[in-house]
Amino acid sequence: MSRDEIRNTFFDLLRPYVRMEDPSRMMESSLLVEDLGVNSTRFVDVVLETEDRFKIRVENEDIDRFRRVSDAIDFILERRPA
Predict the structure, then answer these.
(1) pTM for the whole structure
(2) Per-residue pLDDT tens digits of the chain, which is 82 residues long
(3) Which domain covers residue 47, as residue numbers?
(4) What is the domain-level CATH number for residue 8?
(5) Tally of structural domains, the chain
């Protein structure tokens, strides 16, 4: 998958969890919690769905890397199967 494909897939994954009036305004620079309103329960769901959708493992110590949308995309790029 290219970065653009991962980005688009991750944005689709995020949409149900985002608490903003217009989810189409999500950007790679958006903060998951502060900008997009993803609460702690939804954050766990995002991580679990990311693992399932991209066939990767997100360890507890890696969760801090999911601060911005771009951070999550970069993490997925690093961990995705070859």
Answers:
(1) 0.89
(2) 899 999 999 999 999 999 877 777 889 999 999 999 999 899 999 999 999 999 999 999 999 899 999 999 999 999 987 6
(3) 3-79
(4) 1.10.1200.10
(5) 1
